[in-house]
Fold this protein.
Amino acid sequence: MAKAKKKAAKKTTKRKAAKKTAKRKAAKKTAKRTRKPTGADQAIAAIDSAQASRIRKPKPAASASATTKRRPGRPPGPAIARPFSSTDASRCKKCGSTNRTRYTSFRKLEYPGKSPTTGEDCSHVILRNTTCKDCKQARTDREYVNEPT
């Protein structure tokens, strides 16, 4: 008998909950309906677009600092500052192309005197091995450097 009472109580609570959800849904539907226009709405609708643009206040011009938003994180630019070389790009002696593979190895040799290309004083020459990407010719690029000892 106790089990029958519990089952009946569960059924009634389920029915009550279903009725409540039905009422909520009905209330939402009525809230979603469009509202009736008031006198102010009708007056605004009656104004033509030329008059409406004169009534509205123009927006203030945005300053340059307000338009650029600062974002958190690392600033733009390269992570490592790389040295800039003012020398011309080395060319392949066979085809004249500047396209090359990465340098595979380098040697730094003492070279007291003047650079044969620029005529400036130099103390070392750096020899770098590379390959032309166009004709696959192997070559050694030379860079004359003046470094204090």
Residues 105-145 form one domain. Strands lie at 105-114, 121-131, 138-145. The first strand starts at residue 105 and ends at 114.
